[in-house]
């Protein structure tokens, strides 16, 4: 049986996302403010939520320009047409969210505050990633862009010397020229595990998903679950192993669902992933 203090804490917990967003009515905001000094658990969750909000604010200036978004939607439409049977459509098909997602397993709980905030950050990060990957189509070619696929050693050297935005472009361009079984796959896995930038690691996730038929990709994603600390990358990896039906990821997901340093939204996503794989 829950004590009155625990019951009050559980009730106020659902208000924390709106409290951080400053969207609570004044009376409820005062209740939360009065509760926080007496509850370390709620203080920690508020700190984590504010960190997520700061990540979102930091990403907003990098949202792709209108021209880049238009380029992306045009490419997306081309990909959708390639996936359809060779029959002329009766009418233009509008882009739908479920077709546009590379990996989409958000649980129903997305409606609550935790999931909305985390999902927003992931989507913003994806927008930044797509905008940068498409920048070369908008006349902004980077000095590291090249038509020839570099050898694995050359790619690794370039990754160490390039800026974060250039590393994203290198990962994207290289993955499009790489086939499963290529030694370059290991460079992409190293980038996923050790690159300092979460955006570059997200780009590596996207690249490795294209190469998911390579057996070492599945093993690499499972291993990476145990070492990632960025919530966006953690959630992306969870969705990827679930989409790829990598059942041997279940033990790592169980560990992640119990990690004290993982955000509640990440632990919830790991638990949801376990349910889909077992």
Short account of what is shown:
Helix content is 65%, strand content 0%. It is mainly α.
Mean pLDDT: 74
What top-tier CATH class of the domain at 66-79 and 100-277 fits best? Mainly Alpha
| Cα separation of the termini | 31 Å
Largest sheet: none
* Uncertain runs: 97-113, 130-146
How large is the count of helical segments? 15
How many strands in all?
Answer: 0
Strand proportion: under 5%
Name the quaternary structure: single chain
Any idea what the shape is?
Answer: elongated
CATH fold name of the domain at 66-79 and 100-277:
Leucine-rich Repeat Variant
- Helix residue percentage: 55-70%
Strand pairing plus helix content: what structural class? mainly alpha
Q: Under the CATH scheme, which architecture of the domain at 66-79 and 100-277 would be assigned?
A: Alpha Horseshoe
The Rg value, from CA coordinates, equals 21 Å
Element order: H for helix, E for strand: HHHHHHHHHHHHHHH
């Amino acid at each position: 049986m829950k004590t009155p203090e625990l019951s009050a804490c559980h009730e106020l917990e659902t208000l924390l996302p709106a409290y951080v967003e400053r969207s609570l009515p004044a009376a409820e905001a005062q209740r939360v403010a009065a509760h926080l000094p007496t509850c370390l658990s709620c203080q920690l969750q508020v700190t984590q939520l504010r960190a997520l909000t700061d990540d979102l604010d930091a990403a907003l200036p990098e949202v792709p320009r209108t021209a880049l978004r238009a380029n992306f939607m045009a490419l997306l439409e081309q990909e959708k047409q390639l996936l359809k049977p060779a029959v002329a459509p009766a009418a233009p098909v509008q882009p739908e969210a479920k077709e546009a997602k590379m990996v989409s397993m958000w649980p129903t709980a997305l409606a609550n505050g935790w999931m909305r905030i985390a999902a927003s950050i992931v989507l913003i990060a994806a927008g930044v990633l797509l905008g940068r990957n498409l920048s070369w189509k908008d006349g902004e070619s980077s000095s590291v862009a090249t038509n020839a696929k570099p050898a694995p050693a050359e790619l690794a050297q370039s990754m160490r010397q390039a800026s974060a935005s250039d590393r994203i472009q290198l990962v994207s361009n290289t993955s499009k020229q790489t086939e499963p079984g290529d030694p370059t796959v290991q460079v992409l896995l190293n980038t996923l595990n050790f690159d300092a930038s979460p955006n570059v690691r997200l780009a590596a996730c996207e690249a490795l998903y294209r190469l998911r038929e390579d057996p070492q990709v599945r093993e690499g994603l499972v291993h990476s679950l145990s070492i990632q600390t960025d919530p966006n990358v953690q959630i992306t990896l969870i969705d990827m192993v679930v989409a790829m039906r990598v059942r041997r990821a279940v033990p790592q997901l169980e560990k992640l669902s119990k990690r004290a340093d993982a955000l509640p939204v990440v632990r919830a996503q790991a638990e949801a992933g376990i349910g889909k794989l077992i």
